[in-house]
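Do me a favour: review this protein, sequence plus structure tokens, and tell me how the chain folds. Record follows.
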Amino acid sequence: MREIETLWSSYYPDDVFRKDFLDEFIKKLYEGEQAMLNLIRGFSFIAIFIGCLGMFGLIRFLASQKTKEIGVRKAYGATVGQILYLFMLEMLRLITVAFVIAVALGYYLMNMWLEEYAYRININGQIGLLAFIALSITFVLATLTIGYEAYKAAIKSPSLSLKSE
């Protein structure tokens, strides 16, 4: 470095020698992207948490609204499994529709964001696999939550749910 600085001073005596390394320069360029990634991670966690709370609240609300329906179905001989199936079918349809919308919107927004770069990656099957894993986790969480609330509603005696009318 000293030799380079000496050569610089001999050719450009009026200019100040300033050294920058390419890796540090590139790192500075991506600091904004790294900050945005950290924000996205934080807000994604908050959004997933709020979504799980909303799903739990919706399931509890539906269970309380359908107590009479569940009582009538049990009085006519419906099993706990059939009642669980009705709850899960309704909620999993909503989750599937939400997933399809989220995948389409995410794909579109990611392509728009990646177009700003000279060197970019293409969204491929690996990202689709990650989305499928996220869907599977969502289905498992939804199934456990729905199953718990629906089971609580289904094991109640039909006379208790029909007596209030």
About this structure: The chain has a mean pLDDT of 82. The two ends are 89 Å apart (CA to CA). The CA atoms of residues 96 and 102 lie 10 Å apart.
